[in-house]
């Protein structure tokens, strides 16, 4: 991947901050339309570390916009319509390489530190990497940097989230295990976790991603809880832990207005994630694609908030199900006391 400041252009049509599913899906649409794109990601290596159970919907790749390479999918869950279990590290790093070959500038280990006011045409972003600081002017900035989005906050959108509305996740990747059923997942709401959950997601005939979500204030108890639930479940027996995966997500309602002048907010940065189940990969890809398509549609006319408002219409189909998931979590939470 390009990583030096000498390879980062000082002016582009679109700056995308974050090379997860949302940022990459947006980049694919914009690059293929012939616009200039810079994708920056604060991680030293795009795709690492992975932070979820990696289960996606069966049409994820279609929405994502890339033809998957063989190592992008670990396994398919036959009893759920061949839902893919992704290898997120391979998927995201591979998609970034494809975009780089198609002409996008891609920089790992590069963070956005400041964002200028919209001047009627675009914004100036201040970036920093191990090679120093630089400024980039972009007609549009896409915030795909996860929650709470620093990029959106710098543009004046309130993205702060109460610790009471966050979920901590802990998972193990396990190999050489005996699975009760390698063609279906186990998803449970045991009383010890209520209103949150425990999962066993097969990632091969003898492999699985096993994890749980707990309220953030109980994050310190996640490991003993996960170890206990693994011992109690009948979904798998034995095996070797080869990776520990940690993460968190907002269990809130989505941002109602995920745009301002010169900026669109996508994926988890816009809180487009199921507050009940923690599903966010498909929503990220869908909203990223919508952001890319919005720029392709309105770019020649300008990137004012008035023009970008069509993005909200494009992602509107996400809002009903996400509001429903939020309501279900709150009801379960109320029953748990």
- Overall structural class, as computed from helix and strand content, comes to alpha+beta
Named CATH topology of the largest domain: FAD/NAD(P)-binding domain
Q: Sheet with the most strands? A: 8 strands, mixed
Number of strands: 17
Q: Beta-strand level of the residues, as a percent range? A: 25-35%
N-to-C order of helices and strands: EHEHEEHEEEEHEEEEEHEEEEHHHH
Low-confidence stretches: 1-6
Shape verdict? globular
Distance between the termini: 49 Å
Provide a count of the helices: 9
At CATH level 2, the architecture of the largest domain is: 3-Layer(bba) Sandwich
What is the name of the CATH class of the largest domain? Alpha Beta
Mean pLDDT: 93
Helix content: 25-40%
Gyration radius, in Å: 20 Å
CATH homology-level superfamily of the largest domain: FAD/NAD(P)-binding domain
Task: Explain what this protein looks like in three dimensions.
The protein is α+β, with helices and mostly antiparallel strands and 337 residues long. The chain starts with 10 loop residues before the first strand and ends with a helix. 28% of the residues lie in helices and 30% in strands. The longest helix is centred in the C-terminal third of the chain and has 21 residues, at 316-336. Strands 1, 2, 5, 6, 7, 8, 16 and 17 form an 8-stranded mixed beta sheet that branches. It has a 5-stranded antiparallel beta sheet with strand order 11-12-13-9-15, with helices on one face. Strands 3-4 form a two-stranded antiparallel ribbon. It has helices at 21-32, 60-64, 88-101, 150-154, 222-232, 281-298, 305-308, 310-314, 316-336, and strands spanning 11-17, 37-41, 73-77, 83-86, 105-108, 110-115, 123-129, 132-143, 166-175, 178-179, 186-188, 197-204, 207-215, 236-237, 240-250, 259-260, 263-265. The radius of gyration is 20 Å and the shape is globular. The protein folds into 2 domains: 5-161 and 252-334, FAD/NAD(P)-binding domain; 163-250, 2-Layer Sandwich (D-Amino Acid Oxidase, Chain A, domain 2). Helix 1 packs parallel to helix 3 (88-101). The chain has 9 helices and 17 strands.
């Amino acid at each position: 991947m390009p990583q030096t400041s000498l390879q980062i252009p000082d002016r582009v049509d679109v700056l995308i901050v974050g090379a997860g599913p949302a940022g990459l899906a947006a980049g694919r649409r914009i690059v293929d339309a012939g616009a200039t794109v810079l994708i920056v990601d604060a991680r030293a290596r795009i795709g690492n570390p992975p932070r979820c159970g990696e289960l996606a919907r069966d049409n994820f790749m279609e929405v994502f916009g890339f033809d998957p390479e063989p190592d992008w999918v670990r396994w398919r869950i036959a009893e759920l319509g061949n839902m893919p279990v992704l290898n997120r590290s391979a998927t995201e790093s591979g998609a970034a390489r494809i975009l780089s070959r198609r002409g996008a500038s891609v920089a790992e280990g590069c963070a956005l530190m400041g964002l200028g006011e919209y001047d009627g045409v675009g914004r100036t972003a201040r970036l920093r990497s191990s090679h120093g600081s630089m400024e980039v002017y972009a007609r549009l900035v896409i915030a795909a940097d996860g929650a709470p989005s620093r990029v959106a906050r710098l543009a004046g959108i309130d993205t702060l989230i109460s610790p009471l509305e966050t979920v901590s996740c802990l998972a193990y990747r396990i190999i050489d295990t005996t699975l009760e059923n390698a063609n279906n997942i186990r998803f449970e709401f045991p009383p010890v976790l209520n209103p949150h959950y425990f999962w066993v997601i097969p990632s091969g005939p003898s492999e699985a991603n096993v994890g749980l979500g707990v309220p953030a204030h109980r994050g310190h108890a996640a490991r003993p809880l996960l170890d206990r639930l693994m011992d109690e479940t009948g979904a798998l027996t034995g095996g070797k832990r080869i990776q520990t995966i940690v993460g968190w997500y907002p269990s809130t309602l989505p941002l109602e207005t995920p745009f301002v002048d010169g900026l669109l907010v996508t994926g988890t940065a816009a809180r487009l994630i199921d507050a009940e189940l923690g599903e966010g990969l498909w929503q990220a890809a869908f909203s990223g694609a919508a952001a890319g398509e919005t720029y392709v549609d309105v770019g020649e006319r300008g990137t004012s908030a008035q023009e970008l408002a069509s993005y909200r219409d494009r992602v509107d189909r996400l809002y009903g199900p996400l509001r429903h998931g939020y309501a279900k979590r709150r009801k379960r939470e109320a029953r748990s006391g």
